[in-house]
Amino acid sequence: MSAKGKILEREALGRLTAAGFGHAAMHLGMKGTQYRPSDPMAPMASAYAAPIVAFDSQARFGFVAPAGWGVPMRFALMDTSDVLAGDILVCGADTYFVARVEDFRPPLSVLCNRVVTVSNVSGSVGNILVGCPASIEMKGRGESAQSGMPGSLRPGQFVLLLPPVPEVALQPYMTVTTDLGTSYTVNAVETSSYGFRCVISMQQV
Q: Which residues are registered as beta bridge partners of 54?
């Protein structure tokens, strides 16, 4: 078979695999809502699609046990013919964002537990991201540095996972505010095709 023939065969197999995932989801999943963020001020302004989706903590979709506490990664069982990293999926009471899409594999997604707004560093005006689903999980320990106040506690440190949103670039010293009104300072940022992974610390009054 020629190289072109192999490419066409791979594309055909990819379409069959994507459809197969969707067929399985029809039996195991439920109808959800898919968003494709384009505006950082309103990442969920309008629905993009309404796929049937099922989520599991394992890619084989055995559905044998719930995921552990503090483990936000899930695999999405759905038709993958039109899914991109950064897509937001709402299914029942849960919200996820897609972190990775690869051929012949179910998408890797992140279970979100907060909705956040990110504001610019001190001295700069305005928000850079508003109303975006995110995962915030506590790290094992707080910062090593004390605030200097007698009897003060170490501020908690957390890991923030955010989807890749167009025109958004995070940097240290930005402020993250959740739907609960809790504020955090961004300490470190890792940017990749998966999205943003940040170390954040809770702001103390």
A: 77
pLDDT digits (tens, 9 = 90+) for 136-148: 999 865 555 555 5
Token code pair at residue 62: 């055995």
Question: How far is the C-alpha of 173 from the C-alpha of 153, rounded, in Å?
Answer: 20
Residue 151 CB neighbour total at 10 angstroms = 4
- Of 145, 137, 152, 146, the C-alpha closest to 199 is 137
**Average of per-residue pLDDT across 59-78:** 92
On whether the pTM is more than 0.70, the answer is yes
Calculate mean pLDDT across residues 11-29: 93
pLDDT given for residue 124 in this prediction: 79
Strand ranges across the sheet with 88-91 = 30-31, 52-56, 73-77, 108-112, 94-100, 88-91, 33-35
Using DSSP's 3-state secondary structure scheme, residue 130 falls into strand
Query: What is the distance between the alpha carbons of residues 165 and 117, in angstroms, rounded to a whole number?
Result: 13
The H-or-E segment that residue 14 falls in is: helix 3-28
